[in-house]
Amino acid sequence: MKRLAILGVISLAGLVSQTSNAAVVSNYDTLSTIGASPTALTFTVGDNIINARLLPTPASDSRFFSFTVASGYQLSSITLDAYSSAPLTSGSATAGGIAFFGIKQGLTITPDTTNPSSVDGFALLGTSTDTSTKATYGVDSTLVGQDLFTSLIASGARTGTTLTNSLGSGDYTVWLRESKTNDDFSLTFKVTSVPVPATVWLMGSALLGLVGFNKRRIKSF
Predict the structure, then answer these.
(1) Which is it for strands 121-125 and 141-142: parallel, antiparallel or unpaired?
(2) Residue 32 in contact with residue 64, Cβ under 8 Å?
(3) Which of 15, 71, 105, 213 stands 20 to 30 A from 84 (CA)?
(4) Residue 146: what pLDDT?
(5) What is the four-CA torsion angle of 12, 14, 15, 16, rounded to 10 degrees?
(6) Band (88; pLDDT cuts 50, 70, 90)
(7) Which run of H or of E encompasses 156?
(8) Across the chain, what does the average pLDDT equal?
(9) Helix or strand or coil: residue 66?
(10) Separation between Cα atoms, residue 63 and residue 68, nearest integer Å
């Protein structure tokens, strides 16, 4: 019984002890332009940084990548860390001045032309110069320092899918698209362990209590 209790405590510690690190997973224009064949990226526990550059030459530019969230983990936030948008040429229109971010469960996104309903949720990155943006898409633009999940959830009325404020284990594909501007931005995808249920903590406390009880029992003999 004593050995079983100690093993149970060790197993509990393994569930909640995770390493965390920040790593640049992809830099700028190294991502696939084909939704049916996205670049496969490896996300680790902690912060995973995507630095993206979208340059429409000559047409609108889309980039795609996929990643997997392992069992027992979740994608708990996607933060817009930096964003800049510039006209193609001096004096040209900025077409709203925002970039499109879409995410979908699975390892592909099709079609890969402008179609918000082909993803499970989408967000608009940067400050829009077009006052009709929210009326058209139903979401506010995500500003630097904000989490994209607010927009991903709000866009459900258009995509037909309602996401939650975190995504569980599974495969996901991301679609990045500019709005006929030169866009540079940085995103942080935070992967964390799924919170341990209270029942597991209670089990761990009970096991620790058994260890203490067995020690006292041995001393009494």
Answers:
(1) parallel
(2) yes
(3) 105
(4) 96
(5) 100
(6) confident
(7) helix 156-159
(8) 78
(9) strand
(10) 18
Q: Which residues have CB under 8 Å from 196's CB, separation 6+?
A: 12, 15, 16
Give the model confidence (pLDDT) of 99-153 as tens digits.
899 999 999 998 866 677 899 999 999 876 666 667 777 788 899 999 999 999 9
The reported pLDDT for the residue numbered 214 is: 56
**CA-CA distances (angstroms) from residue 177 to 56, 62, 164, 221?**
9, 4, 23, 73
168: its two tokens: 């569980």
Q: Phi and psi (nearest 5°) for 175?
A: -120, 120
Nearest to 38 by CA among 89, 87, 106, 130: 106
| Distance between CA atoms of residues 164 and 176, nearest Å | 20
Q: Which DSSP state fits 3?
A: H
Q: Assess contact for 142 and 125: CB atoms under 8 A.
A: yes
Taking the C-alpha atoms of residue 124 and residue 35, their distance in angstroms, rounded to an integer, is 19
Q: What is the pLDDT of residues 2-49, one digit of tens each?
A: 333 322 322 222 222 334 457 888 887 788 989 999 999 999 999 999
Q: Give the Cα separation of 124 and 134 in Å (integer).
A: 10
**Amino acid identity at 160:** G
If you count them, how many residues does the chain have? 221
Q: Is the pTM of this model over 0.85?
A: no
Buried/exposed 169-178: b ≥16 CB within 10 Å, e otherwise: eeebbbbbbb
173: its two tokens: 């594909």
Tokens 């996607």 locate to 78
